[in-house]
Amino acid sequence: MVWGVVLAYFCLSGRIIAYLHPAFHVYTAISAGVLLLLAVVLLLTVGGESAVSKGVSLWKQVFASLILVGPLLAATGISPSEFGAAAVENRGLVEHISDLPAFTVPTEPALPTADGSIGPETPIDAASYLKRTETGKIKAETVDLLYAAAEPTMREDFENKDVELIGQFLPMRSGNPTGDRFNLVRMFVMCCAADARPVAVAVQTGDGATFPDMTWVKISGRATFPIESGRRSALIVADSIQEIDAPPETFIY
Amino acid sequence: MEGAWFTFRIEDFSYAFLSVLLEGVPFILLGTLLSGVIDQFLPARWMTRLLPRNPFLAVCVSGLMGLIFPMCECGIVPVIRRLIAKGLPVSCGVTYMLAAPIVNPLVIVSTMAAFRGQAALEMTFLRLGLAFFVAVIVGLAVHNLPIAAVMKRRVMESMALSPETSGGSSRPFGQRLVAALQTGVRDFLDVMVYFVCGVAVASVFSTAINQEMILPLALNNWLAVGSMMLLAGLLALCSTSDAFIAATFVAFPGVAKLAFLVFGPMMDLKLIFIYSSIFTKRFVLGLAVGLFVLIGLLCVRLAVLGL
Questions:
Q1: Per-residue pLDDT reduced to its tens digit, B5-47
Q2: What is the pTM of this model?
Q3: Domains of chain A, first to last
Q4: Which domain covers residue B29, as residue numbers?
Q5: Chain B neighbours among A 178-197 (CB < 8 Å)?
Q6: What is the maximum alpha-carbon separation in chain B?
Q7: A78 and B14 in contact by Cβ < 8 A?
Q8: Which of A7, B1, B283, B297 is most solvent-facing, going by the fewest CB within 10 Å?
Q9: Are A79 and B18 a contacting pair at CB < 8 A?
Q10: Looking at the partner chain, which of A79, A87, A99 has a beta carbon nearest the beta carbon of B250?
Q11: Is ipTM beyond 0.85?
């Protein structure tokens, strides 16, 4: 019964969005319904010797009940529904696209036709797939910029363009000799938060912005892709950094 | 490497802990409800009539049963418990338990997708082939063990006490359905106690320990294979998604990723606790060590393939 109620609470309150990939939400919702139904059926049909208690001593039942219910309720109360900076850093930041789960090697567009002209289906107007803000800045995700760092054609869409993106503030502990950079992090999820990988893009500020770790911020700035330590990386040269509320969907998929 | 190797925060732990519970409960519930149905509706000895009489062939067929009856590692224990009660040989049950979380259609698709661009076909074929081979080897070893060395006495007694074990029930359908639900709930609660403990331990690792510590181990095949199996055991990932995580360990050789993909669904922290609900402690310990050594040796030998 308790498990059914807790699962139903996560589904109905929308908290489940911060825990599971959307593909799993329906299974959890069904499980909540089934568990509640089972609880009702057992309450109506139990009689005489309890099937659950048969052959098990009382203290073992109490102990098992505590393990089943205690940690679940405590975690539900304690969990902030997002990771702190320590857990994110322990997982290791994904700063290059090849480190991203489910990464596939980008495919270059078709080659020019025999006479050297570009084929009719080859060029795709970037405006057709790049979303823009009202002020004309490209709305980007951290993952987009990591892909752009690795793939020349995609890089052309972003390089030296004004972009706007959101993420969580995380101080840069290394590779920041002048102290004017930080990481902008989004959690990339395959199944659930436990397998989430933090995808990070470096942000350079003029005055060294400081926020509490993992604060949600919106960055406006110019996307650059310098080669540093022998690898091309994404770096946002920020014009403005603004603290914001957490978005409804904190994960990227 | 920057920062401390261990930084525990109860908030991070609670978050990871809850997310695995929310993800795992549906699969355990499915497995335990299925176990209740098997208990009440599957005729006794049906499984033994289905499998070849030759023990070797029976174990081999059990290793492939996941292709038709796919189960994830969380929900499979209550199912094999009921199948064994219905006459499935323990060796076949253990083989099915180890193989089915890997040798199944979902894992084929997810492994192919995760390793796209990284020898996906070879990795998928090797993952399934190695899992089948290891499961069959373990199944044949279990065939030569007395059942008391494998199953807990309490579990064997409960199987012997079950009136349905010796034959089909003549009770009305409604009563059998309620009994199936009661059995399913009992199994669910049994398994969940162990699952909660296993997830708690795995969540400490996945949030508190700096995972960059293992990167230097990637330079040597033996160390890489061993450390990746250890990591799989500690992370306790689901077999349908672990390939996506394994594929990101680009610094590690392919054989180490293969070891991660084969060892993890067969033995991890939560599974140690779940297996302990029906198997003896000695068997679980032996199984853990045996799988670690066998898969490790096979994967290191497979390095000749140039993965």
A1: 888 999 999 999 999 889 888 888 887 888 788 778 877 677 7
A2: 0.80
A3: 2-44+57-78 (no CATH), 85-106+126-252 (2.40.50.140)
A4: 10-305
A5: 190-195, 197
A6: 67
A7: yes
A8: B1
A9: yes
A10: A99
A11: yes
